[in-house]
Amino acid sequence: MKSLINYITGIFKGVWSLVLGMMVTGKYFFSPWKIVTQQYPENRKKLVMFDRFKGELIMPHNANNEHKCTGCGICEINCPNGTIEIISKQILLDDGKKKRAIDKHIYRMGMCSFCALCVKTCPFNALTFSQEFEHAVFNRAKLNKVLNKDGSSLMKGVE
Prior knowledge:
Number of helices: 3
Distance between the termini: 76 Å
Strand order of the largest sheet: 3-4-6
């Protein structure tokens, strides 16, 4: 008797699952304007990626060509596959003291696993991911980028 009840219950669960699936199909069949699939090459200009998308690691600069990276090296240490390399230099301040600053912040996108450990661990929020998604190149060397711009300096108030 118990096996018969389990058999009938299984049939009703299967029919209910079929009805739910057909409701989803019917929803998209009768309202095709709500479909979120986008035609990629045709809408390249107006395509907007979602907020959590990780495109390319960048170092934002303000209008005065200043960034927030102090060259502490935490991002380089936390990168699991050596994607980031920071080449630092010593700057002589007005009071005669020496200060560490970045010379080059090198990012090797070809090695990056986009785990975002560098962004999460940066104490100064100097790094972020852009929304850029087209990275195909013919020369692998073009995937190595220097994130700090030429002539850029540390933003005032960031230490």
